[in-house]
Amino acid sequence: MSDGKHRAGREDSNGPGPAPAGPAFRQDLRGAVTPRAVILLLGVLILEMAFVVSFIGAFHSPRPRNLPLAVVAPGQAQARLVAELNSLPGEPLDARAADSASEARAMVLDRRVDAALLAGPGGGPDRLLVATAGGPAAVQSLQAVFAKTGGGSVVVDDLRPPSPSDGRALAGFYLVLGVVVGGYLASAALSASYGARPASPNRTSVRLLALAALSVVSGLGGAVVVDPVFHALPGHFGALWGIATLITFAAAAAGMAFQVLLGTPGIALSVLLFVVLGNPSAGGVYPTTLLPPFWAAIGQALPNGAGVTLVRNYSYFGGHQTSTAWWVLSAWAAGGVLISSLASLRRRPAAG
Asked: Cβ(216)–Cβ(283) under 8 Å?
């Protein structure tokens, strides 16, 4: 008797069976995937596709375009050789005359040109002066160009190879990549914690000071890693610390400005500029002269490309040809500070 009541109780509690899940499922779906979530997912998809297009577009077919080349040859042969090199199909070279082998060598080492061609006297082999510390890919492309011209054998003389611990001269690029990511992620972290738009100019100043302090620590950490830890870029600790600090702050200040102006979408703009567009155009994997026109045009105007130029040229080339890169990074940093400050000042009456 008690067993029967127990079974009946179980049957009553279980009910006749599960209710139709259609309306409940649709209600849960609407609650879980809101219109805002759909917009965010679409934004992620757009960034994902932009990432694929940008990296494959930049790297799928690298070839030299107007690669600066100094030329030394005897007498009237020099002008003829310069003209022949500049008339090659596709304009892979931007040849210009140098007065002597010593001048051509200096032009390579102070980065006025990527390489120098010394015509062999008496029909002997030509010499190609290069500096693979500036990127081995350019040297390989040059060798391929001369092989296609059929101009005879070329002996390659590497004036400035990368340090033994710098492999394919990519340590500088990865240092820049790391601190740029750290910079804009730092601004995004503050946004996630305290809101994308600071409530007052004072809070804007405090955030910028926090980002500046983080940038100093970030630059120190990056310099420690590439110099005393792995010895990839030895002998330039102070310069690398300062450069990495400025790169970090440029990305952080710009990222904060984007968020102050746009809110959360400002983070996506940071990713678009500093990752999707900035990394493939930075001249790390392939130098600017091997990139398609769009990426070659924007590379040195972004913190990534300017940072790679500073790190490489201070590590290997005595800091030559870096004034533009300093201005670019300073402009990003100062612009981020100015825009963030002005935007917060404009909102001050409303906040009051």
From this structure: no
**Closest to 239 in 3D by CA, of 314, 316, 317:** 314
At 23, the pLDDT band (50, 70, 90 cuts) reads: confident
Q: 336 Cβ partners below 8 Å, 6+ apart? A: 250, 252, 253, 254, 255, 256, 257
Distance CA 35, CA 317 (A): 53
**What's residue 351's pLDDT?**
40
Contacts of residue 151, Cβ cutoff 8 Å, sequence gap at least 6: 126
CA angle in degrees (0–180, nearest 5) for 216-254-134 = 70
Percentage of the residues of the chain whose pLDDT score is greater than 90:
69
pLDDT for the residue 14: 53
Q: pLDDT tens across 109-158, in order?
A: 999 999 999 998 776 788 999 999 998 898 888 888 888 876 667 889 99
What's the mean per-residue pLDDT of the chain? 89
**Per residue, what are the HEC states of the chain?**
CHHHHHHHHHHHHHCCCCCCCHHHHHHHHHHHCCHHHHHHHHHHHHHHHHHHHHHHHHHCCCCCCCEEEEEECCCCHHHHHHHHHHCCCCCCEEEEECCCHHHHHHHHHCCCCCEEEECCHHHCCEEEEECHHHCHHHHHHHHHHHHHHCCCCEEEEECCCCCHHHCCCCHHHHHHHHHHHHHHHHHHHHHHHHCCCCCCHHHHHHHHHHHHHHHHHHHHHHHHHHHHHCCCCCCCHHHHHHHHHHHHHHHHHHHHHHHHHHCCHHHHHHHHHHHHHCCCCCCCCCCHHHCCHHHHHHHCCCHHHHHHHHHHHHHHCCCCCCHHHHHHHHHHHHHHHHHHHHHHHHCHHHHC
Q: What is the pLDDT of residue 350?
A: 45
